[in-house]
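Weekly modeling sync, notes
Attendees: S.R. (lead), two postdocs, one rotation student

Agenda item 3: backlog of single-chain predictions. S.R. asked that every request posted to the team notebook include the full sequence so nobody has to chase files. The rotation student volunteered to paste the first one in as an example of the format we agreed on. Action items at the bottom.

Example entry:
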Amino acid sequence: MKTYYKRFMLGLTITFSLLQSINYAVAETNTTNAKSSEVVEVNKANKIIKPKIIFFDVNETLLDLGNVAKSVSAALGGRDELVPYWFTTMLHYSLVGNVTGQYNSFGEIGIASLEMIAEQKNITLTHEQAKTAVLTPFRDLAPHTEVVEGLKRLRALGYTLITLTNSSDAGIAAQLKNAQLAEYFDGSLTVQTLQIFKPDLRVYQWAQQTMNIKPEEAMLVAAHAWDIAGAERAGWQTAFIMRPGKAPYPLAEKPNLIGTNLLEVIDELEAITSK
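Predicted structure, as returned to the notebook:
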């Protein structure tokens, strides 16, 4: 019972620290960017201007993580119910890294999270087995069925497409190459440069500054409600792909666009921006 209580209190401490850091980042954004509040109001009205750059999250948004789930489940003794727990643990500790100032790559955090869960559930798993279970499938994921058609449509419409991910530089390069998606993007930005993970507002601010655009000229396409919430708070336009099992975060502003796949999002974008 004492061990459980200590873990619970540690979780509360980390959560409050994370909330404080997010509040600080929001305040910093409002102070340094005079137009930020105006942009948020535009998003609240759900109005859209044609973005100069469309940024894409990659994992789950564009690439199917089915093979990763199978690999992680196998490493955990075939316990499929532990796969979502592993993914949320990985996200949790990426944010712990943001708060504490300790950066490890997303892959390293994924491996460590898998080892942690194995120990919690008394499952025998070596470090090498955990490393293989996470890194091998992540580097070789297939795109969702509609993704190639959708990216081709956006290219034909003249949009500049950039990936913005929590992956490493080498990791995203391998993913796009193996999925045969590299040709559709004008560039890739990763958190390896900043060593801070999304949805920290500094990631979105850095991305827009790198591409030399205003917040309202950026749009993020993602299948993660936490990513959409971060981009919206940074003043970006947002498009949420509601993949199976996904839902918008009720306490965040509603995404500008919502579709069950990329093609539906593009249909909405075209219908609004062509008026």
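Discussion: group reviewed the output briefly. DSSP finds eleven helices and six strands in the chain.
Action items: rotation student to repeat for the remaining queue; S.R. to check formatting next week.
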